[in-house]
Amino acid sequence: MDVSEINKRVIEQFRAGGEIDGMHRERLLLLTTTGARSGRPHTTPMMFHRDGDGRLLVIASNAGAPRDPDWYRNLVAHPEVRVEVGDHAYRATATALTGADRERAWAEIKAAYPFFADHEAKAGREIPVVELIRSGQFATDQ
User: Fold this and answer.
1) Closest-CA residue to 135 (of 94, 99, 93, 107)
2) What does the pLDDT look like over 51-83, one tens digit per residue?
3) Virtual CA dihedral for 17, 19, 21, 25, nearest 10 degrees?
4) Which of 62, 103, 111, 129 is most buried (CB neighbours < 10 A)?
5) How far apart are the first and last CA of the chain?
């Protein structure tokens, strides 16, 4: 099964509210970005981290690939995104952390999830850490 088929299944399971094969639901969100070239919506399941300040962060590690993931390139072009976490869906603005803020968050993430240090070593690039700042609600949000 290819990645797009796995993602499709995970998205369906997430939205159905049940168990998600091989994943921890409490660490998973769905991020819908607008395609940088196509302008079409793209939904990607991904792990998130709440930092010590309570911010919702996603990590563009691309499993240690040398290039940024497509979802990251999309949000750089179109930072307005849709976030689905738990039973809530809302609009957000995606902002890549920079400088000391990024370094502090990245150190915290690697301490909590050591596999990200392996991704960093494999990637040979600075892995973007992105804050998802809530900007509005959808009808599904209570």
Assistant:
1) 93
2) 988 899 999 999 999 999 999 999 999 999 999
3) 70
4) 129
5) 36
The CATH code that applies to domain 3-137 is: 2.30.110.10
Token pair of 53 as six digits? 């300040």
Cβ-contact 103, 31 below 8 angstroms: no
Nearest alpha carbon to residue 86 among 11, 17, 22: 17
Q: Give the integer Cα–Cα distance in Å for 127 and 107.
A: 12
Residue written as tokens 């596999």?
A: 115
Dist. CA 135–CA 13, nearest whole Å? 26
* Residue 26 C-alpha from the chain's centroid: 13
Euclidean distance between CA atoms 134 and 65, whole angstroms: 29
